[in-house]
TrEMBL record:
<dbReference type="InterPro" id="IPR007138">
    <property type="entry name" value="ABM_dom"/>
</dbReference>
<protein>
    <recommendedName>
        <fullName>ABM domain-containing protein</fullName>
    </recommendedName>
</protein>
<feature type="domain" description="ABM">
    <location>
        <begin position="5"/>
        <end position="102"/>
    </location>
</feature>
<dbReference type="Pfam" id="PF03992">
    <property type="entry name" value="ABM"/>
</dbReference>
<dbReference type="InterPro" id="IPR011008">
    <property type="entry name" value="Dimeric_a/b-barrel"/>
</dbReference>
Length: 114
């Protein structure tokens, strides 16, 4: 059986672009929920509290059914469109950081779309 893959990604929008960023990410969450149902188990946008630099920073917490599903996500039209808009509008103050991980211990309770 294939192992689930988790992605943790940090995104740092410019302070004056936070509302636009959140609107785009909210739509992205809806698109992933609707279009990647069989492969994406979790796709949650969170906002980091108390960033050292005092600037807004967001953390995506994602879970895919396997590595292929995680890799395929970045090839979807909605993913490419999102990052195209972010680049065109200059929304991010720095490039995204991400890590692909696999579970080693812990638990998870059922969750629903936020």
């Amino acid at each position: 059986m294939a192992q689930e893959v988790h992605i943790v990604a940090t995104l740092a929008p410019k302070a004056d672009k936070v509302d636009r960023f959140k609107d785009l990410m909210s739509q992205m969450c809806k698109d992933v929920h609707a279009k990647e149902e069989g492969s994406t188990h979790r796709y949650i946008l969170t906002e980091q509290l108390g960033t050292p630099e005092g600037e807004p920073k967001f953390v995506m917490v994602e879970t895919y059914k396997d590595k292929n599903a995680a890799d395929s996500h970045t090839q979807t039209d909605h993913f490419k469109q999102l990052f195209g808009v972010m680049e065109k509008e200059g929304l991010l103050r720095e490039g995204p950081w991400l890590a692909q991980t696999v579970s080693k211990a812990g638990f998870e309770r059922d969750r629903k779309l936020i």
